[in-house]
Amino acid sequence: MSQSTSSADSSTPSILSLDEQRALLRRLRSDILTAYRPHLQEGSGPIRVMARIVAELEQTCHAHAISDDLIRSEIVNRTIGDIDLRQVVECEGEPGGPLDYRILADELGIALPGEQLHNYTATGETYLWLREQMLACERLLLKQGFDPRVYDIYGIGNPVLRGWLAAEMGRWGIEVTHRNVHLSLGAMDGIDNVLRGLAHIARTQKKEQIAILFPEPGFGVPEWQAMSYGYQIHRYSTSAENHFKLTGEQLDQVLAENPAISVLYLTITNNPTAFAYTPEELNDLHAVLRRYRESGRQVFILADLAYIGTGKPEEDQARMATFIESDVLKHTIFVSSFSKTHTLTGERLGWVTCGDPDIAVGISVSWSNGLAALPGEWQLRFMAYYRLFQERPQLGEKLRRFYRLRRTQLIAQLRAIDEQFQLFDQIYIDDDATVYNWSKLKEGVDAFSLFEKTGIAGVPGSGFGYDDAYIRFSIGVIPIILKDPL
């Protein structure tokens, strides 16, 4: 869909008063919501629809010469989870100190030398350091007989970096070698390759049907991927009573009723709910799967670790420890990335770890058929970032503190808004992880009406296979302003 716009030049000052601009903006906001509401479930789904609404509304407002300050206060994009470090304004301590989050873009090598970032001039030290490390890593690879500039017949990435990432898994107690690890262009690419690879294995074993179980609410992209590879999709709607997590009893029931299920997609720390499985809850699931395997039925866990590392380290460690037992590890495929844990969404630095090296070999056909070879320059960048995080582990803790600050501020903002508009039935407190808030709306309220009243755009529950009585907000892209947005 497209929205009609004025021919006004957005650089031209508006002839309307501030109150007239605000009234116009709110009318435009109401009009675009009316136009889009019937199309929420079409095409790419509710997440991208809501994001598109925000983008088109901002463009329309600029075309009507509405002031930028007013646009920022009346249109608040909380749809996409990416953290834009260039937009960070928070500083809890001394400028340049450990709690100055404005300098994260500089510390993570995103800010260019001399770039201006909210009253801070980036040094570019890390930006340049990463490039020096890329050079050093290329020399290291050439010395070990791997040339990243030529065709890689295996297509799964250089063995040096894969070995480093195997060691990274080792810090969780997951003991593997580089043969268990394949590189991926972020987590979504990794999941796609795994699903395609497992479908290939099923075909070679002459299985008539391969099915996968998705607990919901959950990240929707893997469902689309699985459908494209011919999986039979099974969804299980979890409950608020269990903090939207699948229980062992529920898993047992679903597996008993659906004998074709051979893959369980499990986000250990959940998007959208921001709740995480406890070790006890994971062990309950493992016990059920162990019982089925002992009877001859093979069921893999596709464990999405996108947000492992955003929570409390000791709690993440305890969660991951449940996968160490050999019979559990052998039937688990982990998907990891630096996208959310280290705010590097645009870098697409991910990897897949198979507990069973034979499964790693079996699914590798997905890489050779999909990419032929992973980009050499990208692998060098990946290696440089790995070295950065090994050398400066304090960056991970600083990011966790930053996420916690924004989640806390968002909850406070939502509560203040609720006092004025009575929009929420419950504003959930998370498990101190991820970059989201998941809350329940009052009867008669949905993502559209909330956006119309507050200017805050969230993603309805249907974007995650759930009820539109729920909504997900992101702490990414823009800071949390602790004041009434109206």
Protein described:
InterPro entries: Aminotransferase_I/II_large, AspAT/PAT-like, PyrdxlP-dep_Trfase, PyrdxlP-dep_Trfase_major, PyrdxlP-dep_Trfase_small. It comes from Dictyobacter alpinus. The protein is of the alpha/beta class and 486 residues long. Helices cover 43% and strands 13% of the residues. It contains 17 helices and 13 strands. The chain has helices at 18-36, 46-63, 68-74, 104-107, 125-143, 159-170, 186-204, 221-228, 248-257, 279-294, 313-321, 326-329, 357-363, 365-370, 376-391, 394-421, 447-454, and strands spanning 76-77, 181-185, 211-216, 232-237, 261-267, 300-304, 332-337, 349-354, 424-427, 436-441, 456-457, 459-460, 470-474. It is globular, with a radius of gyration of 24 Å.
Gap between N and C termini: 28 Å
CATH fold node name of the largest domain: Aspartate Aminotransferase, domain 2
Low-confidence stretches: 1-11
**Topology as a string of helices (H) and strands (E):** HHHEHHHEHEHEHEHEHHEEHHHHEEHEEE
Per DSSP, what share of the residues sits in E-state strands of 2 or more residues?
Answer: 5-15%
Question: Would you count the extended β strands for me?
Answer: 13
- Mean pLDDT across every amino acid position: 92
How is the biggest beta sheet arranged? 7 strands, mixed
